[in-house]
Amino acid sequence: MSASPTKAEGPHEEDVQSPDNEEKDTDQQNMYEFEVKEQDRWLPIANVARIMKTALPDNAKIAKEAKECMQECVSEFISFITSEASEKCQQEKRKTVNGEDILFAMTSLGFENYAEALKIYLAKYRETLSRGGDTRSAPSGSAAAAGQGTYPDAYGHIGNGVSGAESY
C-alpha cells in the first residue's frame, strides 16, 4: 500500500475567509441568533377570543379550535397587509408605516371594501384626536357616552362602539 502524499498542515485555502466574507457570515449569524416560533408571531389568543365574543350573542360559546383558527388567520392577514405597506415605505425611503400605507396596501391587495371602511374610521379617529378626545373610551357627556352613534365600525356603519348594540 503506497502512502499518499501528505498535505502541509495549516489553513487550507478554502478554510481561510476574506474579511468581506467574514463580515457577511457574522451578519448572518447575528440575524439567526434566536429562533422565532410560528406561534410567537400570532396575536395573543385571549385578545382574539375577546374580539370574537363581541361579535356574538352573550350566551354564545366559541370552541378552542375556532379561536386558534381565527388567531392564525388574523395574524397572517395582518402580516400580509403590513408587509405590503412596509414595502411601500422602503421604496419611498421611509421608516414609519402610517395609516395611509395600510390603506394603500389593502387596496393594492384587493381589499378595497375594507380599505374604504377603514378610511372612514381613520378620519373619525383623527377627528377625535384633534378634539383632544380619548380614543380608548368615549369622553363623558359625549354622544358616544350617551349611546348615540359617533364611531364607524369595521363595516363603515356609525355606532357607539359597542358591538351588537346596533341593529343592521
UniProtKB/TrEMBL annotation:
GO terms for cellular component: CCAAT-binding factor complex. The keyword Transcription applies. InterPro entries: CBFA_NFYB_domain (IPR003958), Histone-fold (IPR009072), Transc_fact_NFYB/HAP3 (IPR027113), Transcrpt_fac_NFYB/HAP3_CS (IPR003956). Its main location: nucleus. Coiled coil: none annotated. Residues 137-149 have a biased composition (Low complexity). Residues 1-31, 131-151 are annotated as: Disordered. GO terms for molecular function: DNA-binding transcription activator activity, RNA polymerase II-specific; protein heterodimerization activity; RNA polymerase II cis-regulatory region sequence-specific DNA binding. It is found in: Nucleus. SUPFAM superfamilies: Histone-fold. CDD domains: HFD_NFYB (cd22907). Keywords: Activator, DNA-binding, Nucleus, Transcription, Transcription regulation. It comes from the Eukaryota. Belongs to the NFYB/HAP3 subunit family. This is Transcription factor CBF/NF-Y/archaeal histone domain-containing protein. It comes from Orbilia brochopaga.
